[in-house]
């Protein structure tokens, strides 16, 4: 880094005691001499050969070698000799005599006298100078420079190849050239960082890191270090900027191609396998289980579509981002891709939704059909079971339940028709483009199935209605039958009550003939009521027989009702006849007794005969006897009128009247007894 008085560069060759390789020295000199510029070389070199630690023959060989290695720019060679060591040998070879042959001046000088030829500030401390120099530091920095120069030069060539490859030819050729280029062998960012750090070192001109003394730079402007680094950095920045743009364009094109490839993948799958899956799924099933199986299959198809729809959403977001930040030349292509992708996805989504709605409507239709079928089965089962109710109330309840079931069936059939019509409307709206083929045949099968189900349910419902009409008539007849049986039983009860009333309350015989006649008239009316009750019961039982014949069944109650009715009526008839006989006897008794008792004594001739009194007495006794005799029925049972006290009271009244008649008889006989005496 030092300079001589002519501003020529100083080249120092330190020799050592060990064997010096001339080849390595020659290579080293060639490298060192390649560093300075031609301008620096033109000013010549001053070579310092430090032979203080070497032998004379080595020094001489080195000096002679300089003639071949170092060009003519060498102006002075200073051989630093050891003190008083080579004095005897100098005579054998005088360098100054060989100046013309060598082409440069060679002087032998000791280290302390070297300052005569070179300024101390240009000499290092080894030669008594003040120039600060650290060879290892210089070597490290030189290696950094060499590495930077090599990497930057190679990188510039690579970047130029990449950049120029993208600027030539058509768009397709540029894309093909860019795709074939490799990435740079080194990281441009790292090379630029290294260059900036190196340039910073050069600009500080303190390579050795010393803060004191004279600043020294082994690669100053004269050695072209700083300008070369700056030029390389400028070129690198330019090429790297172009390379980044090329990479951006390539990345954009690659991204666009990837998006286009993914779009085509989505479109091809949706229009290919996706549409084919929907083409094969056209049925609606013939039952709930079949519709559910189709729904499960459709859910699997939807699951596969969902994966592609997720890709569609991601692609749509990427395309939207590129549209917001894209260039004008890419907008048309991006919009076309977005529109194509959206059209296919929305069309496929519409087909999936239509299919899902159709299957849901089919499931609802089959559910309503199954419920209606179960209702019809229940109604038919109820109609097939023979009616054996206990009473009319249970029949009424059964009839009400039957009507409710029939109404429920009507509502179910109406709901089935509504669901079926809605399903038919959806099928009719299924255009041929929905699955990419003509679906007329498949739709006809679905339509026939739906209409067949509705017609079958209508026929089953009609058959049930007919059976319900028959059952309703039968049950109404049974209600009437039970009503007749109940009324007939009630007639028996009424007749029994009349009989009971006749025995317990109809016991008076009257105090005179007039009253007895009134009682007799009332009794006849009472008998008329009983007769009407008996006739009413007979009519009801006859109606029961007719209804049983119509229903082809035997009544559980009419069988014993008629005997009971006849038995009670027979008892009533016997009791009534006994009552009439007693009343008629009482009328005869009272009439005869009253006639005798009311006759005047002035007409005694009317009573001359005793037959009338005897007759009255006989009737009275007969009546008294009847009061003590019970009513005997055909079954051998007996019943008394009233209580014993009641009968005793009636008998006492008759006896009183018989006593009056007897007194009347005695009165009439007394005049007859006095007449003969007189």
Short description:
The chain has 678 residues and is mainly alpha-helical. 71% of the residues lie in helices and 4% in strands. It has four domains: 9-132, no CATH class; 144-164 and 187-207 and 216-270, no CATH class; 276-476, Methane Monooxygenase Hydroxylase, Chain G, domain 1 (Up-down Bundle); 506-669, Methane Monooxygenase Hydroxylase, Chain G, domain 1, CATH 1.20.58.
Mind explaining what this structure looks like?
- By secondary structure, the protein is mostly helical.
- β5 (631-632) and β6 (638-639) form a beta hairpin.
- The chain has four domains: 9-132, no CATH class; 144-164 and 187-207 and 216-270, no CATH class; 276-476, Methane Monooxygenase Hydroxylase, Chain G, domain 1, CATH 1.20.58; 506-669, Methane Monooxygenase Hydroxylase, Chain G, domain 1 (Up-down Bundle).
- The chain has a four-stranded parallel beta sheet. Strands 5-6 form a two-stranded antiparallel ribbon.
- The relative contact order is 0.04.
- The radius of gyration is 75 Å and the shape is rod-shaped.
- It has helices at 22-33, 38-42, 56-69, 99-102, 135-165, 171-180, 188-204, 225-280, 288-325, 328-384, 392-428, 440-504, 513-551, 558-598, 611-628, 644-677, and strands spanning 9-14, 45-50, 74-80, 105-109, 631-632, 638-639.
Draw up the topology in text.
Blueprint: E1 9-14, H1 22-33, H2 38-42, E2 45-50, H3 56-69, E3 74-80, H4 99-102, E4 105-109, H5 135-165, H6 171-180, H7 188-204, H8 225-280, H9 288-325, H10 328-384, H11 392-428, H12 440-504, H13 513-551, H14 558-598, H15 611-628, E5 631-632, E6 638-639, H16 644-677
Parallel strand pairs: 1-2, 2-3, 3-4
Antiparallel strand pairs: 5-6
Helix pairs in contact: 5-7, 5-8, 7-8, 8-9, 8-10, 9-10, 10-11, 10-12, 11-12, 12-13, 12-14, 13-14, 14-15, 14-16, 15-16
Family: Belongs to the SOLO family.
Keywords: Repeat
Domain CRAL-TRIO: 1-135
């Amino acid at each position: 880094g030092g300079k001589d008085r002519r501003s020529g560069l100083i080249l120092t060759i330190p020799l050592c005691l060990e064997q010096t390789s001339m080849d390595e020295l020659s290579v080293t000199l060639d490298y060192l001499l390649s560093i300075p510029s031609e301008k620096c070389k033109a000013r010549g070199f001053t070579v310092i050969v430090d032979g203080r630690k070497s032998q004379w023959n080595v020094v001489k060989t080195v000096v002679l070698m300089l003639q071949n290695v170092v060009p003519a720019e060498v102006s002075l060679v200073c051989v630093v000799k050891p003190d008083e060591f080579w004095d005897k040998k100098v005579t054998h070879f005088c360098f100054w005599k060989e100046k013309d042959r060598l082409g440069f001046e060679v002087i032998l000088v000791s280290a302390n006298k070297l300052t005569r030829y070179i300024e101390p500030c240009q000499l290092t401390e080894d030669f008594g100078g003040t120039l600060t120099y650290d060879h290892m530091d210089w070597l490290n920095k030189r290696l950094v420079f060499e590495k930077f120069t090599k990497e930057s030069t190679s990188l510039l060539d690579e970047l130029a190849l990449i950049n120029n490859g993208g600027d030539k030819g058509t768009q397709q050729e540029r894309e093909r050239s860019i795709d074939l280029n490799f990435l740079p062998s080194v990281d441009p960012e790292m090379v630029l960082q290294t260059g900036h750090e190196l340039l910073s070192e050069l600009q500080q001109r303190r390579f050795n890191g010393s803060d004191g003394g004279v600043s020294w730079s082994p690669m100053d402007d004269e050695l072209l270090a700083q300008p070369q680094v700056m030029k390389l950095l400028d070129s690198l920045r330019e090429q790297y900027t172009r390379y980044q743009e090329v990479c951006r364009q390539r990345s954009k094109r690659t991204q666009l191609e990837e998006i286009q490839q993914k779009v085509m993948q989505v479109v091809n799958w949706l229009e290919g396998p996706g549409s084919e899956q929907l083409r094969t799924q056209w049925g609606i099933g013939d039952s709930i289980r079949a519709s559910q199986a189709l729904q499960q299959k459709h859910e699997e198809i939807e699951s596969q579509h969902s994966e592609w729809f997720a890709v569609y959403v991601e692609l749509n977001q990427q395309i939207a981002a590129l549209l917001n930040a894209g260039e004008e030349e890419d907008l048309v292509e991006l919009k076309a891709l977005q529109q194509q992708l959206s059209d296919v996805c929305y069309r496929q989504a519409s087909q999936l939704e239509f299919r899902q709605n159709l299957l849901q409507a089919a499931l609802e239709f089959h559910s309503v059909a199954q419920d209606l079928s179960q209702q019809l089965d229940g109604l038919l089962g109820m109609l097939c079971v023979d009616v054996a109710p206990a009473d009319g109330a249970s029949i009424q309840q059964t009839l009400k339940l039957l009507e409710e079931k029939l109404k429920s069936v009507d509502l179910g059939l109406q709901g089935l028709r509504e669901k079926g019509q809605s399903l038919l409307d959806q099928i009719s709206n299924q255009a041929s483009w929905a699955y990419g083929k003509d679906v007329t045949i498949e739709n006809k099968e679905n339509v026939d199935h739906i209409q067949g189900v509705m017609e079958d349910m209508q026929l089953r419902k009609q058959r049930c209605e007919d059976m319900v009409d028959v059952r309703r008539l039968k049950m109404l007849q049974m209600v009437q039958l039970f009503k007749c049986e109940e009324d007939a039983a009630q007639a028996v009860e009424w007749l029994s009550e009349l009989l009971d009333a006749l025995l317990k309350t109809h016991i008076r015989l009257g105090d005179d003939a007039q009253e007895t006649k009134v009682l007799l008239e009332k009794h006849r009316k009472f008998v008329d009521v009983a007769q009407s009750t008996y006739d009413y019961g007979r009519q009801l039982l006859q109606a029961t027989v007719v209804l049983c014949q119509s229903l082809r069944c035997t009544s559980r109650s009419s069988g014993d009702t008629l005997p009971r009715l006849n038995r009670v009526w027979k008892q009533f008839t016997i009791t009534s006849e006994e009552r009439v006989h007693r009343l008629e006897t009482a009328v005869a008794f009272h009439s005869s007794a009253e006639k005798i008792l009311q006759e005047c004594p002035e007409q005694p001739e009317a009573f001359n005969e005793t037959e009338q009194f005897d007759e009255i007495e006989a009737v009275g006794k007969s009546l008294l006897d009847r009061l003590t005799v019970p009513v005997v029925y055909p079954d051998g049972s007996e019943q008394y009128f009233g209580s014993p006290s009641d009968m005793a009271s009636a008998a006492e009244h008759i006896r009183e009247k018989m006593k009056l008649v007897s007194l009347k008889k005695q009165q009439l006989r007394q005049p007859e007894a006095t007449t003969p005496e007189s």
